[in-house]
Amino acid sequence: MLRIGLTGGIGAGKSAVSARLAELGAVVVDADRLAREVVEPGTPGLAAVVEAFGPDVLAADGSLDRPKLGKIVFADEAARLRLNGILHPRIGALTAERAAAAPPDGIVVHDIPLIVEGGSGAGFHLVVVVMAAEEIRLHRLTELRGMPVEDARARIAAQATDEQRIAAADVLLDNSGALAELRAAVDALWADRLVPYAAGIANGVPAPVTPGTVTDADVARAAARLRSWLHRPDLRVESDGSELQAFLADADEVRSVAGALAGSGWIVGPDATSARSADPGNPARLRLVPGT
């Protein structure tokens, strides 16, 4: 199963990308939708929010007044963190439930606004970031959604910067233009990268090796993913410019790690000391180095 993390700043157009991926056949797990489900009337999640922020965050019908709560948390970092502490564990449980319903060879897209802010990109095979210039996003928020300009600017400022998103991204989708252009870019991503990547993972077939060098950003993302997948936060990963190298204690540890890489996107070779990526967009090589 290929797991995609889809994110983008408010007003960037992430929902349009998510909708197109669903049309193409992806299983989309929408964090915003799940966030609404966990605070529906009568849920423990809504009761916890009311306990933390008071009954004033309720609408007249007993549902959560999301705009009122939004004004509180987007203007107060501590309040936002408190809300996240209530929502994230509940959203996480629902996320796992929905993703488990996807087929083993499927493509699961996790539509999550705050992947970069939460530092959760390492948990996905790829992170796709939808980008648009701030002025374009402001226009969409104020003119198309009717949001006051002060609120729009505050929400943008509370999120990650463009530079942070670019550093976290394996794929950047520019949504500064027409919707048709964005949909065409998504279609190309689906056909040229996501479908072959999912097939490579399911069938244990690496992507063809192509010439190229490994950038510092590639190394950082790959290292974080390896550490996350293997549950080894201190794993040392470096690059010599042509391949990644993971340094391990001895041959027994190499064999253990090689066995644990199944499903990670790395296809381990017969010698169990080297692996190649199934990602056609980044056909990297990995060597497991013992004795260090």
From TrEMBL:
SUPFAM superfamilies registered for this protein in UniProt: P-loop containing nucleoside triphosphate hydrolases
Catalyzes what? 3'-dephospho-CoA + ATP = ADP + CoA + H(+)
UniProt pathway: Cofactor biosynthesis; coenzyme A biosynthesis; CoA from (R)-pantothenate: step 5/5
Its keywords, alphabetically, are: ATP-binding, Coenzyme A biosynthesis, Cytoplasm, Kinase, Nucleotide-binding, Transferase
Compartment(s) of residence: Cytoplasm
The record's listing under Gene3D superfamilies reads: P-loop containing nucleotide triphosphate hydrolases
The residues that hold ATP are 11-16
The main location is: cytoplasm
Top-tier EC class: transferase
Q: Span of the secretion signal?
A: none
- What EC number(s) are associated with this protein in UniProt? 2.7.1.24
NCBIfam families linked to this entry: dephospho-CoA kinase (TIGR00152), PRK03333.1 (NF002879)
Q: Which PANTHER family match?
A: BIFUNCTIONAL COENZYME A SYNTHASE-RELATED, DEPHOSPHO-COA KINASE-RELATED
Q: What does this protein do?
A: Catalyzes the phosphorylation of the 3'-hydroxyl group of dephosphocoenzyme A to form coenzyme A.
Which family is annotated? Answer: Belongs to the CoaE family.
Q: What name does this protein carry?
A: Dephospho-CoA kinase
